[in-house]
Write a structure and sequence with these properties.
By secondary structure, this protein is α+β, with helices and mostly antiparallel strands. It has 18 helices and 23 strands. The protein starts with 8 loop residues before the first strand and ends in a 26-residue tail after the last helix.
C-alpha cells in the first residue's frame, strides 16, 4: 500500500452525519478535518496511516454557494450524456471489508469478482452520497472531481465556501477536458442557459456514487504502481450518445480500463428489446438485473409510478407473488433436513383433520401433484371485482383450504402436475405447526437474516410496501376500462403461496445462494432439483417449489415465475448460481406482457432477440406460466 500514488477526490453528501458515519464506521477511515456547520460541512477522511490518501466529503451546491453558470452547464452536460462517477478504494482484505459493507446500508452492485492480473474487486453504492438534484433547489449537485488538488485537510478555499470551484481551477485540464474545451474558453452565457434548460428537463435521478473496492495486496510492485494512479481517482465515463450534438469535437481525457461488461452487446440489446416489447404489450414499467462472472447490469424501461412519472428504479421493492413459493419450499426442506418433516409422509401427519385424504403427501404439495383444486380459479373469475373483494380481507389458512375442498379434484394424489396455490397454503400451515412460529418469523430466521436480504419481507396482513417501491397496475377484463392501482393489498388470499415483497438484488442473492448450496444440504437440494415436466413443451419442468427452463441455447435455468395483481416477476439462475436474472413488470391480467417479459430469459442467457407477436410470419413465443388466473 505504501507504493500507491493516490489523488484526492471530492464526493458530495446530502447528509453530513450519514456520510461521516459510513466512511468512519463502515470503512474504518479516520477523520482528518471537519469544518463548517450542520449539513454545510467539509469533512476530510482517509485510511489510517495513509495521510496522502483522502476523500473530502462536501455538501452539494445550493443557490449562492459559488457555483457558476459554466460549472452548472458542465454538470448538466455530463449528466445528460449518462455519465457516472466512481471511486476506487484499495484494501488488503477484500472479503472482510465486503462483509462489513453487506452489514451496512450500502447497495452491492458487484460481489467480489476475480479480475485480470490477480486483481479481485467488488462494487457498491455509497448510501451517504448522491449526485441527484439538491432537495428544494432543483439544481444538480456537484459531480465528483479528480486530479491532484491539495494536501489532505487543505480545501482550496475559505471555510463556508464550496472548495470545488477552487479545486477545479487548480486543475482546469481535468475539468474542462470532459467537454473538450480549453481552459478559459467557456460558452457564452446565453448558450449556457439555453442548453441548461434543455438538459435539466431531460435529466432524472442520476445515479449515486459508485465505489469499487479492490484488493491489490498480492500484486507485484510494478503492477501496483500502474494501478495506483487509478486508486481513489474518479472515473467519469460518457456512456450515452443522446447528447452528442452538445459535445464539441476534441480529444477526450484518458479513461481507466474497466472490467468486461456482464452482458455481451447482443444480449444487452436483446434484453432492452424484451423490456420494450413488455411496455408495448401494456406494462408501464419493466426492469431486469443480470449478474454474471463479470458483474451486474441493469436495464429499465418506463415508469414505476404513473402519477408522478418517476422512472423505474432497479433498487425498488415490489410484490414477488409466487416466487414466495420457493422461499416457502426452502423453509420446509430445511425442516426435512433437520428430521422434523418427512417428504413422503401424509400431510395429515402434521395437520390432522385439515384434509380428507391421507394419500396426499408433503412431496405432493411441493410438486403440485396433490390434485387439490386452486381456489383462486373461482376467486378471480372476474379479475377486478375478485381482487377488490379480497384486497383488504384477512383469511385464515383453513378458510383458503376449505375453498379448495369445495371444488372437484384435478387429479389423484401423485398424478399429473396441476399448479395450485392451495398446495403452498398448506406448506405454510405445516411450517407453522412444526416450528410453532408464524411463517413470517421463519422466513426471517431461516432465509432473510442469514442472506442479509435488506429489501425482502413478509408483511401479511399489512397492505403497504415500505420504502422505495414500484406501483402495480391491474388491467380490467373489459377493453378500454381504466387501470386499477393494486399496489396496496393484504395478499391474504395467497399467504405462503405469494405474499412476499422483495427487490431484484435480493432475488439474485436468494436464487444464487440456493443453487450454490448455501441454504440446503446437497442431498436435500438434489431432491429439490429432481424435476418432472410441467407441460408438453419439453422445456419446462417443476421440482420441489422450483421451476426449470431449458432455453434454446442449451442453458438450463432454475427459479420461479410470479403473477400477483399488478406485478409479473421472473427470478432465475444457472445451476452453479453464477449467472442470475431477475425481471419485473408492473402490470398483470395482460398475458402478452407476461410473455414478453419472459423473453428476457432467452435474451440475457442466450442473446436471442425476442420475437414480437406483431411481426408477421414469425411464431409467437411460448406463453407465460399461469401462476394466477387471468382473463386477458
Amino acid at each position: 500500500m505504501d507504493n500507491l500514488t493516490i489523488h484526492h477526490s471530492f464526493l458530495p453528501h446530502l447528509d453530513a452525519e450519514a456520510s461521516l458515519a459510513f466512511y468512519r464506521d463502515t470503512l474504518g477511515f479516520e477523520v482528518r478535518n471537519d469544518v463548517g456547520y450542520n449539513d454545510m460541512r467539509w469533512i476530510t477522511v482517509g485510511p489510517a496511516g495513509q495521510t496522502d490518501t483522502s476523500i473530502v466529503l462536501q455538501p452539494p451546491a445550493p443557490p449562492g454557494c459559488g457555483i457558476t453558470d459554466s460549472e452548472r452547464y458542465t454538470i448538466v452536460e455530463m449528466m445528460g450524456k449518462g455519465t457516472f462517477a466512481g471511486v476506487n478504494l484499495a484494501t488488503p482484505d477484500l472479503d472482510a471489508t465486503f462483509e462489513r459493507l453487506q452489514a451496512s446500508d450500502a447497495k452491492v452492485v458487484q460481489e467480489p469478482t476475480d479480475q485480470p492480473y490477480g486483481v479481485r474487486d467488488c462494487a457498491f453504492r455509497d448510501p451517504a452520497g448522491d449526485l441527484g438534484p439538491h432537495p428544494g433547489t432543483g439544481r444538480l449537485s456537484h459531480p465528483v472531481t479528480a486530479g491532484p488538488i491539495r494536501a489532505a485537510g487543505s480545501h482550496g478555499g475559505r471555510a463556508g465556501r464550496a472548495p470545488v470551484s477552487g479545486s477545479r481551477r487548480s486543475n482546469p485540464a481535468t475539468y474542462t477536458g470532459l467537454l473538450g474545451r480549453r481552459p478559459g474558453h467557456a460558452p457564452r452565457r446565453s448558450s449556457i442557459l439555453s442548453r441548461l434548460s434543455a438538459r435539466e428537463s431531460a435529466v432524472r435521478e442520476p445515479p449515486p456514487v459508485l465505489i469499487l473496492l479492490r484488493r491489490i495486496a498480492h500484486l507485484t510492485i510494478d503492477r501496483r504502481l500502474t494501478l495506483g494512479a487509478a486508486v481513489l481517482a474518479v472515473v467519469v465515463s460518457a456512456v450515452s450518445a443522446t447528447a452528442a450534438a452538445y459535445a464539441p469535437s476534441a480529444p477526450r481525457a484518458p479513461a481507466t480500463k474497466a472490467a468486461a461488461p456482464p452482458l455481451a452487446d447482443s444480449n444487452s440489446k436483446a434484453v432492452t428489446e424484451a423490456l420494450r416489447n413488455t411496455l408495448k404489450a401494456g406494462a408501464h414499467g419493466a426492469m431486469t438485473r443480470f449478474t454474471g462472472p463479470n458483474g451486474t447490469q441493469t436495464h429499465t424501461e418506463g415508469v414505476r409510478d404513473r402519477k408522478t412519472g418517476a422512472h423505474i428504479d432497479p433498487r425498488a421493492r415490489f410484490r414477488i407473488g409466487s416466487v414466495t413459493k420457493t422461499f416457502s419450499s426452502v423453509m420446509l426442506l430445511q425442516l426435512v433436513a433437520e428430521g422434523k418433516v418427512k417428504l413422503d409422509a401424509p400431510v395429515t401427519t402434521y395437520l390432522p383433520g385439515v384434509l380428507p385424504d391421507d394419500r396426499i403427501t408433503v412431496r405432493h404439495l411441493l410438486t403440485h401433484r396433490s390434485g387439490l383444486s386452486d381456489y383462486t380459479n373461482a376467486m378471480f373469475t372476474k379479475t377486478v371485482p375478485g381482487f377488490e373483494a379480497v384486497r383488504n380481507r384477512v383469511f385464515t389458512n383453513k378458510e383458503l383450504v376449505d375453498l379448495s375442498l369445495r371444488e372437484p379434484r384435478t387429479t389423484e394424489p401423485g398424478g399429473a402436475y396441476r399448479y395450485s396455490n392451495t398446495n403452498f397454503v398448506l406448506v405454510g400451515m405445516v411450517i407453522k405447526k412444526v416450528t410453532k412460529n408464524p411463517v413470517a418469523k421463519e422466513y426471517d430466521r431461516r432465509v432473510i437474516k442469514p442472506l442479509k436480504l435488506k429489501d425482502t419481507s413478509y408483511v401479511h396482513p399489512a397492505t403497504a410496501i415500505k420504502g422505495r417501491h414500484v406501483r402495480g397496475y391491474l388491467h380490467p377484463d373489459e377493453a378500454g376500462a381504466p387501470l386499477v392501482d393494486s399496489t396496496e393489498q393484504t395478499v391474504s388470499w395467497a399467504q405462503a403461496a405469494g405474499a412476499m415483497i422483495s427487490s431484484e438484488a435480493d432475488l439474485k442473492t436468494f436464487m444464487s445462494a440456493l443453487l450454490r448450496g448455501k441454504l440446503l444440504p446437497s442431498k436435500t437440494l438434489n431432491a429439490m432439483l429432481t424435476m418432472a415436466p410441467a407441460d408438453a413443451s419439453g422445456t419446462r419442468f417443476y421440482g420441489l417449489g422450483l421451476r426449470r427452463y431449458d432455453l434454446s441455447c442449451g442453458t438450463s435455468v432454475y427459479g420461479h415465475t410470479s403473477t400477483v395483481q399488478g406485478f409479473y416477476t421472473y427470478a432465475f439462475t444457472t445451476r452453479d448460481g453464477k449467472r442470475t436474472l431477475s425481471a419485473m413488470a408492473n402490470t398483470s391480467n395482460r398475458g402478452s406482457a407476461n410473455t414478453a417479459l419472459g423473453g428476457s430469459l432467452e435474451a440475457a442467457f442466450c442473446g436471442k432477440q425476442p420475437v414480437s407477436a406483431a411481426k408477421r410470419g414469425l411464431a409467437a413465443p411460448l406463453g407465460a406460466e399461469a401462476d394466477l388466473p387471468e382473463n386477458r
